[in-house]
Amino acid sequence: MDDRREAIADAALKLFSEVGFDNVTNKDLGRAASVAPGLIYYYFKDKDDLFRYVLRKSLQDMLACYAEIKGEGRGEDLNAWIASNISLSRPTSGFLKIMLDYAVSDRRSAETDEAIRQFYASETTILTQSLAGRDDAAQLAILVSVFLDGLMASRIIRPELDIQRLTQAFIALLASRPAR
Fold it and tell me: Domain holding 76: CATH number?
């Protein structure tokens, strides 16, 4: 991948999450990514194209981090998924904020909606498999997903939260529920 394209995408995630999509100019993006503002159009058709790319890239980064943690053998699926969320908590919080902004915007696209749907389908599959042997595995997988989204959103509002400790408490709570 081109380093400039990635620098633009990284700057966009940061700026979109901090000041909102509508308030970010190409001049802001160029300054933050250390590129000429006009160069943005070389890599992206327009700001909406950049926005969709940032969403898809964030989804891919989360899945790649999970695969890396899982591949290192640092725990079973549930712990590896939660560890990947914690590892990427800062960008994930920003990503969640722009996803929320996107969800209520008028710039919805089938392509971006599908990328988000695929991410949550992948997450649910990972979590359901990690909770195998439980009659309520599918429901618990959704609960874990919602917990993690809520934790990342809370991190924006309440940065003093100890997300590591909260996830450990949540895992202990899940473990206390007997398999059926």
Answer: 1.10.357.10
Residue 150 CB: number of other CB atoms within 10 A? 11
Query: 63: which residues sit within 8 A by CB, 6+ positions away?
Result: 119, 122
For residue 159, the model assigns a pLDDT of: 87
The answer to whether 151 and 167 are in contact (CB under 8 A) is yes
Count up the domains in the chain and report the number: 1
Judged against a pLDDT cut of 80, whether residue 71 lies above it is answered with: no
User: Using CA atoms, how far apart are residues 138 and 136, in angstroms rounded to an integer?
Assistant: 6
- Indicate whether 160 belongs to any domain: yes
The pLDDT confidence band at residue 34, using thresholds 50, 70 and 90, is very high
Q: Which structural domain, as residue segments, surrounds residue 95?
A: 53-175
- In single-letter form, the type of residue at position 22 comes to D
Segment 137-148 mean pLDDT: 93
Taking alpha carbons only, the member of 2, 1, 46 closest to residue 12 is: 46
Q: Does 29 fall in a domain?
A: no
Among 122, 19, 9, 5, which residue's Cα sits nearest to residue 55?
A: 9
Confidence of residue 73 (pLDDT cuts 50, 70, 90): low
In a domain? residue 79: yes
Output the CA angle 91-94-96, nearest 5 degrees: 110
In a domain, 13, yes or no: no
Secondary structure element (H or E) that encloses residue 37, with its range: none
